[in-house]
């Protein structure tokens, strides 16, 4: 006999959507913490709280600031909390993916040296946000699909 849990799956078995959300959440947490580690973040002494004047770069590629790192950590924590249920995990992946697509568009529209670039983002960040958005939405949709009932 198979029992179903209130979390949206078979008791004792984590659903694929929950696993995907947990993995994505842990990656965001790790990236957020890595942004505060000199060496992993180049030009660490140029790390500012916010704004395009932060010349710190995660892995020497992605422009970061204290605010940018905090947002990654908070996004990871939110994902961990939402991944406790299948519907929450799906919402995190699809909703978070949509947020990242909006952030991608925002990065394309604003000037990198503009005061509006408060996060801050550079071209590498913009395209990473695009792939994160598409990937998260795809994970949310594909891992939460229900199999058609057998006839």
Plain-language structure description:
This protein has 151 residues and is mainly alpha-helical. It has one domain. The protein has helices spanning 16-34, 66-82, 86-109, 123-142, and strands at 4-5, 9-10, 41-42, 57-58, 62-63. A hairpin with a 3-residue loop joins strand 1 and strand 2 (9-10). The relative contact order is 0.17. The model has no long low-confidence stretch (mean pLDDT 87).
**Helical segment count:** 4
Major β-sheet profile: 3 strands, antiparallel
Distance between the termini: 19 Å
The secondary-structure class comes to mainly alpha
Q: Order of strands across the widest beta sheet? A: 3-4-5
Helix content: 40-55%
Low-confidence stretches: none
Which keywords apply here?
151 residues, two-stranded antiparallel ribbon, 4 helices
Give the structure's gist in a few sentences:
The chain is mainly alpha-helical. The chain has one domain (15-142). Helices cover 53% and strands 7% of the residues.
Topology:
Elements: E1 4-5, E2 9-10, H1 16-34, E3 41-42, E4 57-58, E5 62-63, H2 66-82, H3 86-109, H4 123-142
Antiparallel strand pairs: 1-2, 3-4, 4-5
Helix pairs in contact: 1-2, 1-3, 1-4, 2-3, 3-4
